[in-house]
Amino acid sequence: MRDHPSQKLTGYVPVEDAEGLARVTAFRDMMAARRTVREFSDRPVPRTVVEQALLTAGSAPSGANHQPWFFSVIASADARARIRAAAEAEEREFYATKAPQEWLDALAPLGTDPDKGFLETAPVLIAIFGQKRGGPNPGDDKKNYYVAESVGIATGLLIAALHSAGLATLTHTPAPMSFLADICGRPAGEKPFLLLVAGHPAADATVPTAALNKKPLSGIAAWI
Fold first, then answer.
1. Local confidence pLDDT in tens for the 224 residues of the chain
2. Residue 135 belongs to some domain of the structure
3. CATH code assigned at 122
């Protein structure tokens, strides 16, 4: 017997197996076309599109339903320029002194370098934060659980939602990322998780050939 308040499941519509296969295959095909790009157009993205994607991210499951995430959307040119300057400073140090050779060798086929011009060109940056404390209600100050896992799931839904809207994305993780909290004015109890770049790809955008190499089903899953 349940001893907590609950209500009847709504929103779930059963489908026949054939229809379910058709839907999941169509979704797979859509997501298989997703590409990470580093050349963006400065074409504006409607705020409503981004907000609907954020609401999708906010529907993700989370530890104790505490929803330990916060999304700072950076659209102003001044803030994007400040983020670029700070990110490039960290990246220059990373490539020059921090990264072991094995890591640099792994990055080489992707063509990454300290230049992060896309941080100013792309119209939308989303700084994603994990919250150590919070809760499902405004003003809650409870311990949050499985923060990284929860925020990671929400980020995946956000990327999928933006892709479904015809937008390209790039996941950027300069280390350390403390400058994001400063620029976005976030409290000390929040830790930057990832900087997501979003927008329309540039007309001449390219994708590294190495990035197209995806493992087959047998390499990522097994039935037991």
1. 567 788 888 888 899 999 999 999 999 999 999 999 999 999 999 999 999 999 999 999 999 999 999 999 999 999 999 999 999 999 999 899 998 999 899 999 988 899 999 999 999 999 999 999 999 999 999 999 999 999 999 999 999 999 999 999 999 998 889 999 999 999 999 999 999 999 999 999 999 999 999 999 999 999 99
2. yes
3. 3.40.109.10
Entry pTM: 0.94
Split into its structural domains, the chain has a count of 1
Q: Does 141 reside within a domain?
A: yes
Q: Which amino acid is at 81?
A: A
Residue 17 lies in a domain: no
Q: What is the DSSP string of the chain?
A: ---S------S-----HHHHHHHHHHHHHHHHT--B-S-B------HHHHHHHHHHHTTS--GGG---EEEEEE--HHHHHHHHHHHHHHHHHIIIIIS-HHHHHHHGGGT--S--THHHHSSEEEEEEEESEE-SSTT--EE--SHHHHHHHHHHHHHHHHHHTT-EEEEE--SS-HHHHHHHT--TTEEEEEEEEEEPBPTT----GGGG----HHHH----
Please indicate, yes or no, if residue 154 is contained in any of the structural domains.
yes
Residue of 55, 47, 92, 75 whose CA lies nearest to 197: 75
Distances 147 to 77, 130, 131, 142, 199 between C-alpha atoms, Å: 31, 6, 7, 13, 27
- Structural domain boundaries enclosing 85: 40-204
